[in-house]
C-alpha cells in the first residue's frame, strides 16, 4: 500500500481539501474586508466582527472535533477492509453533536452581552457584538453538521465533494455580503454589520443542505439513527473529549490574544482582527496537506503499513513547506495591498503593518505543527495532541504573552507568543512521531 503514497494520491486529497478548508476563513475574511469598509462606524463594526468571529470560531472548533474522530475511525476501518462494521456510527455521532450544539446555542443566546463584556467590549462595539452574534449563532449547528459530513468524506479518502460544497458556500457568502451589507438601491436596504451576519447564516444553511445531498447520493453511509450504539462510539467519544479539551486550550490562547488586543485599544483589535484572519487563512490553506495526512495516515495505520506512514509524513511535510514558502513570498510582495483590502482606517493599517511580518515569518513553523497535527488525528492519537496543546498554551503561550506585556512589548507580545506556541506544538509532534514509528519502519 505504501506505493499509494505519491504526488498524485496526496494531491488528489490535499488540493480539494485546501480549497474546502479555506472556505470558513474566507467567510470570516469576507466579513472583515467588507465590514471594515462600511462608511458608518467602520472601525467599531470591524472590531465587533473580529470579537464575535473569534468567539464563534472557538465554539465551532471546540465542538467540531467529532469530524476528526469520525474521519480517523472510518479511515482506519477502510484500511483494514472492515468498513461495514462502522457504517451506522456517523449518524449516532452527528446526532449527539447536534444535540450538544443546540444546548450551547440556547445557553449563550440569553447572555450575549455578558459574554462579550468579558472581552472588554463596551459601548458601540458591545452593541454591535450583540446584534451580530444574535444572527450568526444560528448557523452554529449548521456548520457542525456540515463539518461532521466532511469528516465522513475525509475518512472515505474523498475530499472532492467537500471542496464543491465549500466553494459554493463561500461564493454565495461573498455575493450576499455585498447585497446585504451595502444594499441594492430601491430593493434591499443597507444592513451594514447585520447584513454580513445574514449573509453568513444563509451560506451556512445552503452548505448544510448540499452536504446532506452529496452524502445521500454519493456514499452508502446512512444518517438514519439506529440502535444499539456502534462499538466504536465509546472510542469516538473519548477521542472527541480529548480534542475538546485540546481545543479549549487552543482557544484559550486565541481568546486571550483577542482580550489583550481589545484592552490595548480599538486600533489594536482592528489590526489584530485582520492579522488573525490572515493567520487562519494561511493555516487552513496549509491544512489541505494536513487533511491528506489525516485521511491517508489513518488508512495506512489500519493496514499496518508503517513504511508508507513514514514516507507519507516526509512527503506531505515537503509539499506543505513549499506551500508555506509560496505564501510567505506572496505576503511580503503584497504587504501593503493586503492590509488595504480590510480597512480604510490609516491608524488600523499602520498598526497591522507593524506586526504583519511576524505573521509571515511564522508560516513554516505553522506548517510543521499543522501537518503532523493532521497525521496524528488520522492515527487517533488524540490524547497526545491534547497534552501537547495544554503544554504549549499554559507553559508557552500564556507566560510568553504576559512576560511580553510586562516588558512593555504591547501588540508585539501577542504575536511573539503565537510563534512560541507553534514551535512547541510542531517540535513535540515531530519528536513523538519519530520515537514511535521509526523503529517500525523497515526502509526509512
From TrEMBL:
Coiled-coil stretches noted in the UniProt entry, renumbered to this chain: none
Membrane topology, from the record: Multi-pass membrane protein
Gene Ontology BP annotations: monoatomic ion transport
Ranges annotated as spanning the membrane: 46-64, 93-112, 132-153, 160-184, 196-215, 236-257, 269-290, 316-335, 355-376, 388-406, 412-431
Family annotation (InterPro entries): DinF-like (IPR044644), MATE_fam (IPR002528), MATE_MdtK (IPR050222), MdtK-like (IPR048279)
GO CC annotation terms, alphabetical: plasma membrane
Location in or out of the cell: Cell membrane
Record key words, sorted: Antiport, Cell membrane, Ion transport, Membrane, Transmembrane, Transmembrane helix, Transport
Organism domain of life: Bacteria
Gene Ontology MF annotations: antiporter activity; xenobiotic transmembrane transporter activity
Cross-referenced PANTHER family: FMN_FAD EXPORTER YEEO-RELATED, MULTIDRUG RESISTANCE PROTEIN NORM-RELATED
Record-given protein name: Multidrug-efflux transporter
Organism: Flagellimonas marinaquae
